[in-house]
Amino acid sequence: MSALDLQLHDRGRVASGSYVSRSQADSTRGSPFRSMSRSSPTGQAETTFGSRFDLPALPLEDWEPTLDTLHLWAQIVGKVRLAAAAPRNHWWHVTLYVDVRGLTTRRMHAPSGITFQIDFDFVDHRLVVRTAGGDVESFPLVDGLSVAEFDANLHELLGKVGTDVAIRELPYGMDVATPFQEDREHASYDADAVTRFWRILDWADGVFEEFAGWSCAKTSPVHLFWHGLDLAVTRFSGRRAPENRSFDPVSREAYTHEVVSFGFWAGDQKVREPTFYSYTAPEPPELRGRPLRPDAARWTGERSAMALLPYESVRTASDPRATLLSFLESAYCGGSDLAEWDREDLTSSWCPEPAALRDLLGEVN
Fold it and tell me: Is residue 55 within 8 Å of 315, Cβ to Cβ?
């Protein structure tokens, strides 16, 4: 075995990914989807990422005013990113990302030439602006902080470090029409609920990353779109989609190619609970007839088919990770098969063996 082979084998150990890939199948026994643990330097059992741990409850009605406020705050920060980042296909340049303390824009470049980033710190509950020159400015995220005050405080910090940019000071795609500078109605902040939301995002981000690695097709980053405040990852067939003249310019850029997309959002006026979702675009005929896993998953949607799985069904499952992976895989199989994707060619060497995937989907081998 070469040195490179040894490195790849070491990186692909079950302990690092807690599943058996095609490249691991000859050296590993047992179910690839069961929770696994490894020994920490202290000799105590350490849970691998994505394994079983207590996911928090997050009933929408308990924190909906905070969610609405946080959504508007995220739109302000997201619009700064939109103004300070070079354009990318499918709007990938505007998104936020989950990090070890909350959400981040990652690195941006101001017109002044200063490199900076903005972070929602959900550990200390602060909004933080950092620059490559070492400047750090912040303000607390507290109950009573209105959207108008958040907007003013953020632009003040950005001006102080020489990175302020002009944004369109209106919400996008929300049932709120009040300009940010005038919105003093939305001012709720439940720190405990926000922390639980972030921890769910952190966990889901890890499972989405694992699932993304099962494909060698063009795949989006796992990122948070501030339009809907949803965490998402998208797989592509590699083929352009037919032009849809009914699309607005935003949707036209988002759906230039065939996709199966997956995500999580905390709920809204139509879906009254936190939920995982998937859809295929363009939507192939008979998609609603394809089976979904687990049993709690369902197809919904008046005009287009949306696969939904309540977060509560994942949270209370004996193996949340395998439960979510089964939903993602079943939705992907349904959409990609009907759209005639070459799934075998798009499968990576890190994807579990076909027998393991059938087991995940509850199919008889």
Answer: yes
Which tens digits make up the pLDDT trace of 26-61?
444 344 554 433 333 333 333 334 444 689 999 999
Residue range 85-127, pLDDT digits in tens: 987 777 778 999 999 999 999 999 999 999 999 999 999 999 9
Reported as half-sphere exposure (CB side, CA atoms, 13 A), residue 275 has a value of 20
Closest by CA position to 322, among listed 54, 52, 20? 52
Evaluate the CA torsion angle 19, 20, 22, 24 in order and state its sign.
positive
Give me the residues of the chain with pLDDT under 50, please. 1-20, 25-31, 34-52
pTM: predicted TM-score of the whole model, two decimal places: 0.86
Q: What amino acid is encoded at 329 in this protein?
A: E
Per-residue three-class SS string for the chain:
CCHHHHHHHHHCCHHHHCCCECCCHHHCCCCCCCCCEEECCCCCEEECCCCCCCCCCCCHHHHHHHHHHHHHHHHHHHHHHHHHCCCCHHHCCCCEEEECCEEECCCEECCCCCEEEEEEECCCCEEEEEECCCCEEEEECCCCCCHHHHHHHHHHHHHHCCCCCCCCCCCCCCCCCCCHHHCCCCCCCCHHHHHHHHHHHHHHHHHHHHHHCCECCCECCCEEECCCCEEEEEEEEEEECCCCCCCCHHHHHHCCEEEEEEEEECCCCCCCCCEEEEEEECCCCCHHHCCCCCCCCEEECCCCCEEEEEHHHHHCCCCHHHHHHHHHHHHHHHHHHHCCCCCCCCECCCCECHHHHHHHCCCCC
At 240 the pLDDT is: 84
Distance CA 71, CA 61 (A): 15
Handedness of CA 58, 61, 62, 65 (dihedral sign): positive
> What CA–CA distance (Å, rounded) separates 364 from 289?
20
Q: How far apart are CA 96 and CA 224, in angstroms?
A: 5
CA distance 55 to 57: 7
